[in-house]
UniProtKB/TrEMBL annotation:
InterPro entries: PIG-H, PIGH-H_dom. This is Phosphatidylinositol N-acetylglucosaminyltransferase subunit H. It comes from Dryobates pubescens. GO terms for biological process: GPI anchor biosynthetic process. PANTHER family: PHOSPHATIDYLINOSITOL N-ACETYLGLUCOSAMINYLTRANSFERASE SUBUNIT H. Belongs to the PIGH family.
Length: 182
């Protein structure tokens, strides 16, 4: 099943839930594809075809080639290391939690946490730029102190879903964790 939500910045995101078995669930948040942010209406913007052509003819071709090259390298770096298309969470009650980030270039980054290390999954809040933002995180159990927490692992850092989507993700994770505890 797929539902539409919004991210903390207001962009549309989609949450897809897939139940593989009673103790295995996959949750994926899909971000929008790369789109230009600003579009000028036709005839607006100060440059028409003749002025662009004149500018290109008059400019030094080495400077123009260097600018195009630097722009393309920057775009490739952005697509490979920054732009995340989808973040997913695979929760398997008896095994663990696998978090995957899929980048626009096709690269994937995966983290696996064994269920024995998971103390809980919670919605946490933080203050960022005069706003309160919420995020889902995994609390890892401290091996030296069973009541303590050794680390907090934030999830869905790129898509930044709003609280209504986080509640859905939280409920799904808690259902699987409760089955493992009983």
């Amino acid at each position: 099943e797929e539902r539409q939500y919004r991210s903390a910045s207001g962009t549309p995101i989609a949450l897809r839930r897939r139940q593989h078995s009673a103790s295995c669930r996959e949750l994926a948040v899909r971000c929008p594809r790369l789109q230009p942010r600003y579009r000028l209406p036709p005839g607006r913007g100060g440059l028409d075809q003749s002025s662009v052509f004149a500018w290109l003819v008059l400019q030094n071709s080495m400077v123009l080639s260097a600018a195009i090259f630097i722009t393309l390298v920057g775009l490739i770096i952005y697509l490979h290391f920054v732009k995340v298309d989808q973040e997913s969470l695979l929760v398997i009650g008896s095994l663990g939690i696998k978090a995957t980030s899929s980048y626009a270039s096709g690269k994937e980054s995966t983290t696996f946490i064994e269920m024995g290390q998971v103390k809980d999954v919670v919605i946490n809040e933080a203050i960022h730029m005069q706003k309160v933002i919420y995020y889902l995180c995994i609390l890892l159990q401290d091996p030296a102190d069973p009541q303590g927490i050794s680390e907090v692992v934030p999830l869905f850092q790129s898509s930044k879903p709003r609280l209504d989507c986080l509640k859905e993700l939280y409920r799904s994770c808690q259902e699987i964790l409760e089955q493992g505890r009983t």
